[in-house]
Design brief:
Elements lengths: L4 H10 L43 E5 L9 H4 L7 E3 L4 E8 L2 E10 L10 H7 L3 E6 L1 H6 L6 E5 L7 E5 L10 H4 L6 E2 L4 H8 L8 E2 L7 H5 L4 E5 L3 H7 L9 E4 L11 E5 L7 H20 L2 H14 L7 H13 L17 H17 L28
Parallel strand pairs: 1-4, 1-5, 8-9, 8-10
Antiparallel strand pairs: 2-3, 3-4, 5-12, 6-12, 7-10, 7-11
């Protein structure tokens, strides 16, 4: 199972179980018509924001789950003239970057149940129209043999995945190791991060419990357990949207204990990088800046994300409260930050890529997902298209 999958299952199921009081959505057959694109000047011809002629007429971007604030950079590029295909589950509009119409359209597609939970690398090989896919490092490694992709930029710098617990039941524990010290089970839907914790002596193998079904019932009824979650969602949801809990949770980021994957990084099919090089040379810097701009002014994009969730009618629900909380958490917890090694936003760190392969390839071998841990880290990424002048501090 992909390292990114546990969180996705957790949030999807969390919103549909009877325990959670959430609002309903609109009709399943609803499809929004396009609106007029107002006051958006065209990008300067042949300038850095002019994608016409170098990129596809419609730049297709594939996410790995339902619309949410962690995907804000993609959705922030969708112009106000967009149309929503509620049946196909996609949104298409003018690709607007930094206030300019780039001359091409963008289509953003959600993943997860909308694509029968197929990994994004697999989707990219099934549908050649997908230019950029959101691929977490472990999923990239797992698909390397059959569906190789190359990461061209980071968007979330550090994983927001957490282990969470009830502070009252764990003596006010501040770390996973402290919370797990009494031997309570750590409940997850995949064994990759628990195996990572066990390999470091943070938990014992006997504490690994893979029975998590993505619902809050067990945590609410048995607060002695530890459970997977995401810092960008569960702390808000459990305190504000689950009345049977209604109080803070304790948690620690897995990124603090060696969970070094690049989450939902932007990737291109390995055999498509060269032929799309001219497009990527302009598009990757646009994506770098889009993430920064989104976090500075997320309101319109968050409203679009919530509207898309409402129109897609998949059982997934997502509130503006969660979206706003996610944005703040991404900033406060350095989930989105400049690359520490270079100070450039979106740049991939060679030493970190080596660490990712050294850490997770053996785990994936043990899990039977790949045959060999002999992987060249340099085959997984390129910084060729990164604009080194772009940073969150600039």
């Amino acid at each position: 199972m992909s390292l990114s999958r546990p969180r996705r299952l957790a949030l999807a199921a969390l919103t549909v179980v009877p325990l959670v009081a959430l609002t309903g959505c609109g009709g399943a057959d609803e499809q929004a018509g396009g609106t007029t694109q107002l006051d958006v000047p065209a990008a300067e011809a042949d300038g850095p924001l002019d994608l016409a002629g170098v990129c596809p007429a419609t730049v297709v971007m594939q996410q790995d789950w339902q619309p949410e604030a962690e995907h804000g950079s993609m959705y922030s590029l969708v112009g106000s003239d967009h149309t929503v295909d509620a049946e196909a589950k996609s949104v298409t509009g003018s690709l607007v970057a930094q206030g300019f119409d780039t001359g091409v359209d963008v289509e953003v597609r959600p993943g997860g149940p909308n694509v029968n939970f197929q990994p994004v690398p697999s989707l990219m090989y099934l549908d050649e129209s997908i230019l950029l896919g959101a691929v977490t490092s472990d999923a990239q490694i797992a698909g390397l043999a059959d569906n190789p992709v190359v990461t061209v930029a980071s968007q979330l710098t550090n994983s927001p995945q957490i282990v969470m617990w009830d502070p009252e039941s764990h003596d006010g524990a501040a770390t996973i190791e402290e919370a797990a010290a009494a031997g309570d089970p750590i409940v997850s839907s995949g064994d990759v991060f628990p195996q990572l914790l066990a390999s470091q002596g943070i938990i014992d193998d006997s504490q690994i419990d893979l029975s998590y079904e993505g619902t809050p019932q067990r945590f609410v009824s048995d607060p002695s357990i530890l459970q997977q979650g995401f810092a960008t969602a569960e702390p808000y949801i459990y305190e504000n949207e689950i009345p049977q809990w209604g109080k803070p949770i304790g948690y620690q980021l897995l990124a603090d204990v060696g969970y070094s994957v690049y989450p939902e990084a932007l990737a291109v099919r390995a055999d498509k990088v060269e032929e799309n090089a001219d497009c990527l040379a302009k598009l990757v810097p646009i994506m770098q800046q889009a993430q920064i701009d989104y976090l500075e002014d997320p309101q319109a994009t968050n409203e679009l994300i919530v509207d898309l969730v409402d129109q897609y009618q998949t059982g997934w629900t997502y509130s503006l409260g969660v979206a706003d909380y996610s944005v703040q958490a991404q900033k406060d917890l350095d989930i989105v930050s400049d690359d520490p090694a270079s100070g450039v936003f979106g740049r991939l760190d060679p030493e970190r890529m080596t660490e990712i392969v050294d850490t997770f390839a053996p785990i994936l071998v043990d899990a039977g997902q790949i045959e060999s841990a002999d992987i060249d880290p340099e085959s997984l990424y390129t910084n060729e298209f990164i604009d080194d002048a772009i940073s969150m501090g600039s």
